[in-house]
Known about the structure:
- The complex is a heterodimer of chains A (199) and B (367).
- By secondary structure, chain A is of the alpha/beta class.
- Chain A has 6 helices and 5 strands.
- Chain A folds into 2 domains: 113 residues, Rossmann fold; 61 residues, Arc Repressor Mutant, subunit A (Orthogonal Bundle).
- Chain A has a 5-stranded parallel sheet with strand order 2-1-3-4-5.
- The longest helix of chain A has 44 residues.
- With 367 residues, chain B is α/β, with parallel strands linked by helices.
- Chain B folds into 2 domains: 177 residues, 3-Layer(aba) Sandwich (Rossmann fold), CATH 3.40.50; 179 residues, 3-Layer(aba) Sandwich (Rossmann fold), CATH 3.40.50.
- In chain B, the strands form 3 sheets. In chain B, strands 7-6-8-9-10-14-15-16 form an 8-stranded mixed sheet, with helices on both faces. A 5-stranded parallel sheet of chain B has the order 2-1-3-4-5, sandwiched between helices. A 3-stranded antiparallel sheet of chain B has the order 11-12-13, covered by helices on one side.
- In chain B, 52% of the residues are buried.
- Chains A and B meet through helix 1 of A and helix 5 and strand 7 of B.
Amino acid sequence: MxxxxxxxxxxxLGGRRALVLHREHANVSALLRQLVAIGLDAQEAWxxxxxxxxxxxxxFFDVDMACNEQFPWQPGEAPMPLIALIGSEAPGRVEWAMSxxxxxxxxxxxxxxxIYSTLLIALQKFEERKAVASEINDLRQQVAERGAIVxxxxxxxxxxxxxxxxxxxxxxxxxxxxxxxxxxxxxxxxGGARQRRLG
Amino acid sequence: xxxxxxxxxxxxxxxxxxxxxxxxxDGVIAAIEAVNxxxxxxxxxxxxxxxxxxxxxKYGGLCAELLRDEKVTHIFGCTTSWSRKEVIPVMxxxxxxxxxxxxxxxxxxNDHVVYTHACxxxxxxxxxxxxxxxxxxxxxxxxxxxVWGWEVNRVARDLIGDVGGHILGERYxxxxxxxxxxxxxxxxxxxxxxxLNNLIGQSSYAFLKAYAELGRTEPAFASNRxxxxxxxxxxxxxxxxxxxxxxxxxxxxxxxDPLADGVAMPSSFPAAAYAAVLMLADAVEAAGSDNPAxxxxxxxxxxxxxxxxxxxxxxxxxxxxxxxxxxxxxxxxFRTVWHSQSLQAxxxxxxxxxxRLFQGRPQLKVV
Lengths: 199, 367
């Protein structure tokens, strides 16, 4: 029997740095022990995160006691995968954890089980989230630039080209200059040398 | 007056893998007798036994009986990963410690388990490091359809890919299936440089016999040109394979050597099980307690003289630093053709770079 081929190789977590934002507790010892067994550098912090927290590869945070002021970033903008450590499931606390867009969670008490898969799932969610945000940003920018393309085509049409020729000219300009269509349009609108070369 | 330490034994005396589980049990029994016969020991071990009879449903309940009713703290037992996963939550609930003495696929480090046999950087990684420079890097992967085969083959895919090798096929048989004709046909067409065999029990024996037949008709598949390599094949299984096993390879921390000094064991399963009992005995004597919380803090401070050699336990993972050996089947026994010059520290999550790439691999020497 065949098994499906696996295209996504399991990432090697060895040497990655994890911070655990939680007051000292048996839960934290168990978590730190397991992170080290998996091969990560693990460090606990409470109440303040270390100055270089933004360089960490993973952040575990206590949903029971932590608050926004402990993070050097806005809720939802953490630069690494976040794992919520949930004790009380009081809706307000879960809501707060969700405002930080936790990529995965562990329910206390924390033992040896579940931590490895939680790291992998959090990493995947975070990377997906990052990729989607970056794609949305690119698309937004493209939409915003559409006006520039319209203005550039109109400008070329004023010089006697029809709509199709004007758009082709703009595209060849972008290819010649090895820039995006939007950048070529901006150059054209700002006039000068490029316009003369087209004429 | 010797201190009494009550321990549990949880091996299947019957069922699919009874050859292996009885081999492990033999090692535990022999070690208990050795500890109790040693006048220098300050402890005496008293064993309570339960037999799950190869039935996965029985492991959890019998484990709880040992911990709750017999009041043991330490259990020697389990052969398959599946049974170990059944037992672990029970060990956690009762704060017990399982001494697990079989090779397994890694990616676990539970603080209620001490692992005394090989994990991947002590079996599949050195096996590939041995076989690829000698035979080539194009592999055909086989496995019985459960976690051992899936995981060892997954690690092999990654490592073989890292050195530019190719996986020419990957096939799984249901446990117990002996219909291997199709596999042989596919291997004949694929022409790999070696076959990684993660089949178990009857499937493995049937495959090796059919493969030997293929080697007789096509010399390209003789064991000296395209070997079958395994990471869990041991001596008790060799009679079932017979002459078909000749020339093929296996990796492990121990092979039976009738000329060895000290306690000679028939295979690595009883050797690692025997070692586990000695480790517990030494640790309890040193700590003056059999409390797991106390033992966990000091298991890594001792060196243990065992049939596996003088070994140590890694504190972070509770896995054992072990010798690594590659054995070649000759005249119905394993002859060690390579061994590590020092103990190989455990890396169950393959998170150290030398376990992933072929850099800094264990120094091996020809015997």
